[in-house]
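User: Here's a protein and a ligand (adenosine-5'-diphosphate). What would the complex look like?
Assistant: Let me lay out the input and then the predicted complex.
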Amino acid sequence: MKFTEFGLNEDLLEAISYMNFEKASEIQEKAIPEIMKGHDLIGCAQTGTGKTAAFVLPTLHKIAEEKTKGINTLVVVPTRELAMQIDQQIQGLAYFTHTSSYAVYGGGDGVSWEAERRALSGGADIIIATPGRLISHMMNDYVNFSTVKHLILDEADRMLDIGFYDDIVNIISKLPKDRQSLMFSATMAPKIRKLAKEILKSPIEINLAVSKPAAGVTQKVYLANESQKTPLVKDILADKDNFKSIIIFCSTKKKVEQLTRVLKNKRYSVAGVSSDYEQEIREKVLLSFRARTTRIVVATDVLSRGIDIKDINLVINYDVPNDPEDYVHRIGRTARAETKGLAITFVNEDDMRKFQRIEEFIEIQMEKLQPPEHLGPGPQWMQASPKNIRNGKRPWSKNKPGFKGKKGNAPRHQKPSPKK
Ligand code: ADP
Ligand code: MG
């Protein structure tokens, strides 16, 4: 479907064509008309499918047509990075209109507080904010939400994961009751439904969440012992000179630290990102990664959701992510907007069970590769089948005390404490 078919404001159509959006994505095609009609809506579609424009375009359309005064739209998002990214997309799409937006996330200095204060006093049409920072401002009486007509919660699932539920409810309680509310999420988890029920009025539900990685991603799996992982990374990188943007996900901050150091010593252009790093440094790294000045980013999962970085050529899961959804999100970093990408996951003995859950989730069985010969053999793949479990074959937990064979033989590590 072409964007011209939505009846959007001319100035927006011009911006869309400048941004080289040719046709609307599926979520856009379904959500934009409903939002324009004024319905509440919950939109669920995987990462990289264009959810931002799906809510930004109809919102900008209304602001342009109605020439509203004061803050018209509040967008609440889980992270600063996402707030900035949405602000940028709004500025792009609103370029030919006279709509203003401001991202409220706190830069940590008095200057940003003042500018945010002005925006929140009614100086911007659209506010994009993280919950914590917004609540700090809302303690003051200059925040003027009396004109708010639209509330948007983006990455609602992520916000709940982080524990923003109470903050969200608190913020919403201060908004005019007569408003349109929209929620976007990558998944339709039960807690999302619950939140939707609480804050949306007879919402339209659009659910495109296929838990499948975007087409165009080649997925590879290496069975590797922990000690083989770093040499394997070096090996993989050695013949990938043409891969300009690479992300490596590790399960711990310490591994991020170590692997970054190893690759730096190998003279790769690399930077680490984890919650240990200052916000400012994280932002700098992301900027230089986007600009392709930094070629490799090693990160914990702070980066795995939401942040839009185009054309990542390669994602390496140094460790298997805990949550199958996270696997999909991570490899969704490659092959965005239908380009090709490569995703490689290292599976050690302990992670086989976890990886099997991912395969069940995405309904794909992958070929398990052994590391190249000079690194020695990796562990053997063992399916966690009922038969294997019955026979005590559980190599993925071999080193851990566990039950061997029949029920009832489980060694007790802790005596039940006597009831008083
Ligand atoms: P999501 O929020 O669903 O993860 P985004 O809204 O961040 O996805 O969009 C992902 C990328 O796709 C962005 O770079 C955006 O500019 C681009 N994009 C969005 N809609 C279109 C479209 N209709 N045509 C081409 N590119 C698009
Ligand atoms: Mg998004």
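Summary: Residues 51-66 form the longest helix (16 residues).
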